[in-house]
């Protein structure tokens, strides 16, 4: 193991992902980059996750702790405090790293100290690990470097959470993850770019993101609450109202024929002057389209 290469701390916070956790851990252990420490924390799972992780730990010897449920961001902060790496990779317990991912990111960040986060592209897979059809994939999103306004105003494609490699110095400068906002990716991206770092997202597929019934993004109410809380921390930005209501319009359109109770709640939050095409399309779905399952 070369002492010239920075130590990368990969943190997997596991919660009720028994069917997927082994693949996630093995994908980290199978990285071509040699200088990795793996920290796995089970955050109060009620399935067989702990037994599966213990079996792998006995064979591979990574750091593993079990705790009562604290939530994702609090769990990540606790693991970061114990981690020794200068680069931190939070990773989903249901996702899969491609073998060259960490090596590619470390090489890219080596001479770019103002890159606070390096990310890449993802391949979507289903609950059984099968790729979705090509038309549903976003494998070829080109390179982009994002500053705060790019992130806050959604001017470029967002960096996918399963590919984030975070410079520890930047993470500590912004006070780590916010334990009061358990949706970790958007807020840490906003905080780090607000501190003057960039997020560079490479045009390379780095992870497989698993879509299944318990994905966080499918809990629309949870997503809305936490994203609005994240945006509200930057309410002094001149585009805050525009950003807030554009997001609410998008969520109104998305929920209009999936969760009509929630859609009506969202609509009440959008002042008439911020109505647009998405509002009108959402109204058509709300009152004319058949109800769809989420």
Structural class by secondary-structure content: alpha/beta
Distance from N terminus to C terminus (CA atoms, Å) equals: 47 Å
Shape estimate = globular
Output the CATH class name of the largest domain.
Alpha Beta
Whole-number tally of structural domains: 2
The value of Rg in angstroms is 20 Å
What's the tally of helices? 11
CATH architecture of the largest domain: Alpha-Beta Complex
Q: Encode the helix/strand succession as letters.
A: EHEHEHEEHEEHEHHEHHHH
State the major sheet: 9 strands, mixed
Average pLDDT score? 94
Helix content: 25-40%
Can you tell me the CATH topology of the largest domain?
A: Spore Coat Polysaccharide Biosynthesis Protein SpsA, Chain A
Oligomer: single chain
Write out the CATH superfamily name of the largest domain: Spore Coat Polysaccharide Biosynthesis Protein SpsA, Chain A
- According to DSSP, the number of beta strands is 9
Q: Strand percentage, roughly?
A: 15-25%
In short:
The chain is α/β, with parallel strands linked by helices and 294 residues long.
């Amino acid at each position: 193991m070369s002492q010239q290469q920075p130590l990368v701390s990969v943190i997997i916070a596991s919660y009720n992902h028994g069917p997927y956790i082994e693949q996630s851990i093995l994908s980290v252990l199978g990285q071509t980059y040699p200088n990795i420490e793996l920290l796995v924390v089970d955050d109060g799972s009620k399935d067989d996750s702990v037994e599966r992780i213990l079996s792998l730990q006995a064979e591979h010897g990574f750091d593993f702790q079990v705790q009562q449920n604290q939530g994702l961001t609090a769990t990540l902060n606790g693991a970061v405090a114990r981690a020794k790496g200068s680069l931190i990779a939070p990773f989903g317990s249901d996702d899969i790293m491609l073998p060259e991912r960490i090596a590619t990111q470390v090489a890219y960040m080596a001479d770019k100290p103002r890159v606070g986060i390096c990310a890449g592209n993802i391949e979507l897979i289903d609950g059984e690990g099968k790729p979705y059809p090509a038309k549903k994939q976003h494998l070829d999103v080109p390179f982009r470097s994002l500053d705060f306004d790019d992130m806050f105003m959604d001017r470029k494609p967002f960096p996918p959470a399963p590919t984030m490699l975070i410079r520890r110095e930047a993470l500590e400068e912004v006070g780590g993850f916010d334990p009061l906002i358990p949706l970790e990716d958007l807020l840490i991206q906003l905080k780090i770019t607000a501190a003057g770092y960039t997020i560079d997202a490479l045009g390379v597929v780095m992870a497989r993101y698993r879509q299944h019934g318990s994905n966080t993004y499918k809990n629309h109410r949870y997503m809305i609450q936490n994203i609005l809380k994240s945006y509200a921390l930057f309410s002094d930005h001149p585009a805050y109202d525009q950003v807030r209501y554009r997001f609410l319009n998008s969520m109104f359109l998305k929920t209009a024929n999936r969760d009509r109770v929630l859609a009506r709640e969202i609509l009440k939050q959008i002042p008439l002057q911020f109505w647009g095409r998405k509002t009108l399309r959402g109204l058509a779905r709300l009152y004319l389209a058949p109800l769809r399952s989420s």
